[in-house]
Amino acid sequence: MITEKRLEDALKFLSETDEQSAEASANVKYLDRLLKRKKALYITGETNLKSISAKEQGFYASDTYKNAVEELFQAEVKSATMGNKRDKEGLIIDLFRTLEASRRQHNI
Fold it and tell me: Angle at the Cα of 14 (from 9 to 19), degrees rounded to 5?
């Protein structure tokens, strides 16, 4: 059974993590855009290679790309984890509502 205390905890978590959730989601988008910028800077700054394709492959093989992808991965994990936790707390609230409605109708 979901207690009123558990319901309060779920509501509190949701209300306290609005900003964190938004920041985590925005950070993923920011890092994705930053990765594209890093690629452009690498390609325009590369003078040893002639073709765009070769420059692009050089970028994908670089530590700059590797580090950017790792940073993006960590941001995606943080964002997804926060989203999953918030979804779980929302589910707790929905279940509490359902149980209370059933209790009021004497079905439980």
Answer: 140
